Amino acid sequence: MTKSKTTILLADDHALLRMGLSSLLECQPDMTVVGEAEDGEEAIRLARKLSPDLVIMDLAMPVMNGAEATKRILEARPSTKIFVLTSFPESIELARALASGASGALVKDTPNDKLLAALRKVIAGQRVIPPEMQRQINEVIAFASLSDRQLAFLELAARGFSNEDIVRQHKTTIDAVKKQFSAIFQKLGVTNRAEAVAYAQRKHLLKT
Question: Which terminus of the chain, N or C, has fewer Cβ atoms within 10 Å?
């Protein structure tokens, strides 16, 4: 009896990358591409419609990013495996995708043979994250724990806003702002806002 192929959905906003991946995967005797998505919302819709065994997920996509799409797909279909293929191994989105249950990750310039080996390990139920990538992820996990409000305050601090400026913009109190920054410092293991901003900027974690 012929073993069924692993069905794969590709989610990436770059058509050339999807084309290259599709060509590579369709040449494999144990894999087949059943769909392609250009953004996170389309990835969710196609995952529901096609029920793929595996989704190869980009992170930086329009409409909805890959981290949020990963979370929603796995909430609806826990049996689906998601493998992140990214250009940004230090991104907070990668940490969030893995925290949501993605089974592995590699950078986009990984050689084909290593990518295929990693995909087969994930299909077999293993979790695949290279040690260097795991080290980079560990450095941003604390940042990923920041609330939306804390992240907004830190981004304003990076733009030179004072506590008083933040109070006015968010219609809050000075004590509330100070409390949020104290929580930020504790989560990031720093002692002041300059260190917090420098850490986030060094890791390219802020939109600013």
Answer: N
Query: What is the residue whose two structure tokens read 């702002």?
Result: 177
Whether the predicted pLDDT of 198 surpasses 50: yes
Closest by CA position to 66, among listed 90, 103, 17, 102 = 102
Highest mean pLDDT among 7-11, 13-17, 137-141: 7-11
Q: What is the DSSP letter of 88?
A: -
Cβ neighbours of residue 57 under 8 Å, at least 6 residues apart? 11, 12, 43, 66, 69, 70, 82, 83, 84, 85, 97, 102
> What digits encode the pLDDT tens for the residues 89-108?
877 788 889 989 999 999 99
pLDDT per residue over 180-193, tens digit each?
999 999 988 899 99
**CA–CA separation, 105 vs 58, rounded Å?**
10
Distance CA 49, CA 20 (A): 23
* Structure tokens given for 173: 């109190």
Please give the pLDDT value at position 14. Answer: 94
Distance CA 147, CA 91 (A): 16
- CB atoms < 10 A from the CB of 97, how many? 27
CA distance 43 to 47: 6
